[in-house]
Amino acid sequence: YVNHDGASIGMWADRARTQAEIAHLSRRDADSFAKFCDMMTEAWWALMPYFQDHPTRPSAKTVGQMLWRAAKGRRSLRGAVKVFLSSPQQVIEERFESEEVKAVLANLAAWSMLPLQEDGSGGVLAMMCSYFKWPVTRPVGGSGQFTAALAACARAHGGEIRTDAPVQEILVHDGAAYGVRLRSGEQLTARHVIG
Question: What is the pLDDT of residue 55?
Answer without folding.
Answer: 86
